[in-house]
């Protein structure tokens, strides 16, 4: 997407990409004039909202969403500019809504449905960005990703470059997007907690983490070592269930966000099945239910019949819902 002056946009948003800003910072009002412009598909009636720092390109049927995006972008800019050097000049955002129909094939591309995470552990600051994927095919192509930028790299401090750590949710399969309805990951010190959607899960193929609670540990970069690149390491997980052998393979454990109860060490989250899962953040359980039944309360389906073990396609059978 190239504007008439040849400047490429920093970001492109699908209809739902607005949550990158909304999920992290909420919405505020915006006063801006819409003027015609040339962007993306030339057959559409493209217009531009100009704010203090952004050009937001859209077509008329998405104008209400574009105005919200413009407001949220300015709010995000105001908050993030205190942590890192802002880009030079105006930033172009393109809002598109031309990929929501069935065309007989799927071209994988990343979606930013989850909010940003801001990590600050002992002065080591990082920006955490999570991605989902269209298509959601468990055998691929396409994967969910978590990306971590050391703020010193974004600021171009001596010995650092903006080279992120990248963690692939499903390296041996596909999908496993991080959706979470616009909320960011839960962060506790250097630990990052989130949930994933449908795709290749650990019960089907070890080393893949769709339909799971995941705990990553962040390690900051060091000046002049690998360009100051930070690291993301898998520290723990819990494979809640598998979508394989189900009539509906789109259960999306990660449809909702997660939160931590610090006083008790609980990690709580849920998805499309409407069930809240209560985990011990210090022992998620991997492929067993045992830690969950030693907590102050349990908000899961028990593993007895007709359900199966954690990570099985029968792990959460609505016919045997129970809370303890």
TL;DR?
By secondary structure, the chain is mainly β. Helix content is 9%, strand content 27%.
Characterise the protein shown here.
This protein has two domains: 11-95, no CATH class; 110-317, no CATH class. The protein is 9% helix and 27% strand. It is built from three helices and 17 strands. β4, α2 (63-80) and β5 (91-95) form a beta-alpha-beta unit.
List keywords for this structure.
324 residues, mainly beta, 5-stranded antiparallel β-sheet, 3 helices, disordered N terminus, disordered C terminus
Describe how the helices and strands are arranged.
Layout: E1 11-13, H1 19-25, E2 34-36, E3 47-50, E4 54-58, H2 63-80, E5 91-95, E6 110-111, E7 117-121, E8 124-133, E9 145-150, H3 151-154, E10 165-168, E11 186-188, E12 191-195, E13 212-219, E14 231-239, E15 258-261, E16 266-270, E17 276-280
Parallel strand pairs: 1-5, 4-5
Antiparallel strand pairs: 2-3, 3-4, 6-8, 7-8, 8-9, 9-10, 11-12, 12-13, 13-14, 15-16, 16-17
Helix pairs in contact: 1-2
């Amino acid at each position: 997407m190239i504007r008439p002056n040849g400047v490429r946009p920093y970001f492109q948003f699908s209809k739902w990409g607005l949550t990158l800003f909304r999920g992290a910072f909420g919405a505020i009002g915006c006063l801006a004039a819409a003027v015609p412009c040339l962007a993306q598909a030339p057959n559409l009636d493209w217009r531009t909202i100009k704010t203090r720092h952004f050009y937001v390109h859209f077509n008329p049927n998405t104008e209400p969403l574009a105005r919200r995006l413009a407001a949220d972008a300015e709010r995000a800019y105001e908050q993030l500019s205190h942590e890192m050097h802002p880009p030079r000049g105006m930033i172009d955002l393109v809002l598109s809504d031309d990929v929501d129909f069935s065309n007989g094939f799927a071209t994988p591309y990343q979606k930013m449905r989850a909010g940003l995470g801001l990590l600050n552990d002992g002065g080591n600051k990082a920006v955490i960005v999570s991605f989902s994927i269209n298509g959601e095919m468990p055998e691929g192509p396409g994967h969910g990703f978590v990306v971590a930028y050391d703020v010193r790299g974004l600021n171009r401090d001596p010995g650092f470059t903006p080279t992120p750590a990248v963690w692939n949710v499903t390296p041996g399969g596909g999908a496993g997007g991080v959706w979470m309805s616009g909320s960011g990951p839960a962060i506790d010190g250097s630990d990052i907690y989130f949930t994933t959607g449908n795709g290749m899960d650990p019960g089907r193929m070890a080393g893949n983490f769709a339909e799971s609670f995941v705990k990553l540990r962040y390690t900051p970069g060091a000046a002049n070592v690998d360009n100051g690149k930070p690291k993301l390491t898998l520290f723990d997980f819990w494979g809640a269930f598998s979508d394989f052998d189900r009539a509906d393979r789109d259960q999306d454990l990660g449809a909702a966000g997660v939160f931590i109860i610090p006083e008790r060490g609980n990690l709580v989250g849920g998805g499309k099945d409407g069930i809240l899962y209560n985990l011990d953040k210090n022992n998620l359980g991997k492929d067993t239910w045992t830690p969950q039944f030693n907590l102050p309360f349990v908000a899961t389906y028990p593993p007895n019949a007709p359900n199966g073990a954690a990570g099985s396609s029968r792990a959460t059978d609505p016919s045997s819902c129970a809370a303890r």
